[in-house]
Design a protein that fits this description.
Blueprint: E1 3-6, H1 15-20, E2 24-29, E3 34-39, E4 43-47, E5 50-58, H2 62-69, E6 72-77, H3 83-91, H4 99-103, E7 107-114, E8 117-124, E9 129-140, H5 150-155, E10 162-175
Antiparallel strand pairs: 1-10, 2-3, 2-6, 4-5, 5-10, 6-9, 7-8, 9-10
Length: 176
């Protein structure tokens, strides 16, 4: 099966289910050096007049290093499949483990024009839906910004805060 590019506004998926229950893989990097990680937090919406995604990556994650270096990232969704593989990708660091080799997942690359050049944005071939995003905003969460301080004790007792990324949706690929 191959992918077809579709219009973002034609999506009718429930992203509360897709992200919160089925999870997604956030993948970034270059063709030479890339990584993926599992996420169950995030969102899809509209901000600053653009269709966007919101992703959250902890300071300790190797994916954050690559995300800071690259202008694009992808979100791969699997319709509830690949939970074992996604569990591995969320519990093991890509600094010292090739997650694709260990899980049998296949890296693929979408070509995007960026600053007059074509670059390759990594995603996961086995996905049923892929959203390719261009970073437009990043901010590190800080304790003083939390209005509900109970979240700090529950989610950030080790002070491993997330960086929040807003990405403009540039391409949506759906499995045929």
């Amino acid at each position: 099966m191959s992918f077809s590019e579709i219009e973002v506004r034609s999506l009718n998926d429930n992203f509360f289910t897709k992200i919160g229950e089925e999870w997604m893989l956030i993948t970034t990097g270059s063709k030479e050096k890339f990584n993926t990680m599992t996420a169950s937090w995030g969102g899809v919406g509209v901000l600053w007049g653009s269709d966007v995604t919101f992703t959250f990556i902890r300071q300790s994650r190797y994916t954050l290093e690559l995300m800071k270096e690259q202008p694009y990232y992808s979100l791969s969704f699997f319709n509830g499949a690949k939970q074992k593989e996604m569990g591995f990708c969320g519990s093991c660091s890509g600094r010292d483990t090739d997650k694709f080799a260990k899980t049998g997942l296949t890296p693929a690359f979408a070509q995007i024009k960026y600053n007059g050049e074509v670059i390759d944005v990594p995603y996961v071939e086995e996905a049923s839906l892929v959203i390719i995003c261009k970073k437009i905003y990043r901010q590190t969460m800080t304790p003083d910004c939390f209005i509900d301080k109970s979240i700090l004790a529950k989610q950030y007792s080790s002070n491993d805060f997330h960086d929040v990324f807003v990405g403009r949706i540039k391409k949506v690929l759906k499995k045929d």
